[in-house]
Amino acid sequence: MKSLSSLVYLSKGNLPSKMAHTIQVAKMAQAFSQNIEDFELVTSGDILSAIQGMNSDFQTWYGLHHKFKLVRLPMHFKIKYPFPYNYENEIFYKLAILYACLKSPSVVYTRTPTIAALLLKIGVPVLWEWHEPIPEGTTSFYQALLNNKKLLGIVTTLPQLAENYIQHGFLRSKILVAPNAVDLKNFLPYQDKQLARKKLSICQKHKIVLYSGHLYEYKGIPTILETARLLPDYKFVLVGGWADDIQRVQADYKKIGLSNIILVGHVNQTKLASYLYAADVLILPTSKYWNLAGATCPLKLFDYMVSRRPIVASALPTIMTVARDKQNALLAEPDNPISFKEAILALFENPVLANAIAECAFQEVQNFTWDNRAKRVLQFGAERLQAADEDVVSYRMGLMKYIKQKVFSRVDNYLPSLQSSQAR
């Protein structure tokens, strides 16, 4: 009987980074390591980090509580962490694949389409996690992945995405829908609002509406600024963002004369909880005009839910797979500042409602943990491995020769003509 006893997770090579998808990778890696005997996460690094592997800086950045085997292939002599948002290294892809082949795990796991395509060419059993619909104009590349019998299955976050893959001919039985999750330990011990504000030197009297995440326009930042204009007596605190985006938002709010915006910048996962605990209301104003609005399962939503603070979120179908109006959140019309203003005021004016939806969200999110998600993925992987043909799960003879002839010399033939979208 085939079993899933070992797993190698090949990342994009950009950990640590400010990109949200790397948080998901690191948290899933930690959870995998607690639920499978032989696990490794592979990323890139420099010579020193390759020697260190998992160090305290990496753990603090992602708020990790358990050490696991972190392989940092020395692609650079010396670099400054975190990696830039657009980091891409095709040589890393080649070496990471070579490393995985030499380890011969039960399954290789990845979120990177290029890595998945190359592994399938070699004949390595792959579980592919993917959070986007099949892009227009790239059907042939993705069709080749979906039709490859060596692809054990796809792990995704939303039923809408699963339906998209089925429409492109992928079998429903080979798809696992597993929403994103939260690391509950990052929010322990619980902090009341007064304590959190004292730790962060935030005025106790302010009425604080807080957003955490990147400051891209499609995340709803224009909606936040306009809502702040409508609510001048409230402080809008934005936690996160690249330096360029912070400067852009500063220019935007100064242009319209706002004085109630506070930009904090990026904070690591270890410190994020204090900011969420310091808030009165948490806001998630994702724009309906974002091309991936129909594919988003925001990590911040689950962080918000565990903080026991009431949430106002965009009423998008994807967000509504978790958030339910007047039950565990208030839902506002996307891109409509007046709708967000009314929802925020409703929470401040009705503390009973605010406490009720915050407590409901907190109770429900207890099931959305990375540990639970990892167990589901590993069970799914074991079932798919058991159902696979023998030639799917056995490595080919002369593998190294094949890699040299078919991959290293012709790798460009298999690289997709697109950049994979950065995680939500």
From TrEMBL:
Q: Which keywords accompany this UniProt record?
A: Transferase
Signal peptide location? none
Q: Which Gene3D superfamilies does the record cross-reference, listed alphabetically?
A: Glycogen Phosphorylase B
Q: Which SUPFAM superfamilies did the record assign?
A: UDP-Glycosyltransferase/glycogen phosphorylase (SSF53756)
Ranges for domain Glycosyl transferase family come to 193-361
- Source organism, top-level taxon: Bacteria
InterPro entries (UniProt xref): Glyco_trans_1 (IPR001296)
Q: What is this protein called?
A: Group 1 glycosyl transferase
Origin organism is Chroogloeocystis siderophila 5.2 s.c.1
